[in-house]
Design a protein that fits this description.
Largest sheet: 5 strands, parallel
Number of helices: 5
Structural class: alpha/beta
Domain 25S rRNA (uridine-N(3))-methyltransferase BMT5-like: 8-156
Organism: Durusdinium trenchii
Protein name: 25S rRNA (uridine-N(3))-methyltransferase BMT5-like domain-containing protein
Oligomer: single chain
């Protein structure tokens, strides 16, 4: 990872991933986000306060109530990011079509925040991506990541 890179982490549950990433690479200029409000996050996760404190003390920006499907309106920092990370995106409604819509909307908005040399990383469970590496699940039952990325003018690597 590039020293002093601007990194955006989306939907980081209790912020443990962001805290660990920032600890392992303290030169990052990080914006860590949660979908929940700060109050809901602290109510839901006992360790969230510790992670927020560590991130803010290290100079990271921590934002709450950030919807990864509406990044066109995101105002969490100035400029673009060299790396955008979205770990295990999920929504509890809409089935596979809803999950594809979520990821497609994310890609469309994330593209606008990505630097020319940037990279978007999406962590999915085995079989969800829709690539030849996903095995038996196949294209029909997958999230169809290559197609959704291409529609947003992104390339899957």
């Amino acid at each position: 990872m590039v020293d002093h890179a601007r990194v955006l982490v989306l939907g980081d549950g209790d912020l443990s991933f962001s805290a660990a990433l920032h600890e392992s690479a303290p030169d990052l200029r990080m914006v860590a986000t949660t979908f929940e409000s700060r109050e809901e996050l602290l109510r839901r996760y006992a360790c969230a306060h510790e992670h927020i404190a560590a991130l803010e003390e290290a100079g990271a920006i921590v934002l709450h109530e950030v919807d990864a499907t509406r990044l066109q309106t995101f105002s969490g920092g100035d400029g673009t990011f060299q790396r955008i990370i979205f770990n295990f995106p999920y929504q509890a409604f809409g089935g596979i079509k809803g999950l594809r819509r979520l990821l497609g909307q994310f890609f469309e908005g994330a593209r606008l925040l990505l630097s020319l040399d940037g990279c978007i990383e999406v962590a999915l469970c085995a079989g969800q991506g829709g690539t030849s590496l996903d095995g038996a699940r196949g294209w029909a039952g997958s999230w169809r990541v290559p197609l959704l990325a291409a529609r947003a003018q992104l390339a899957l690597i």
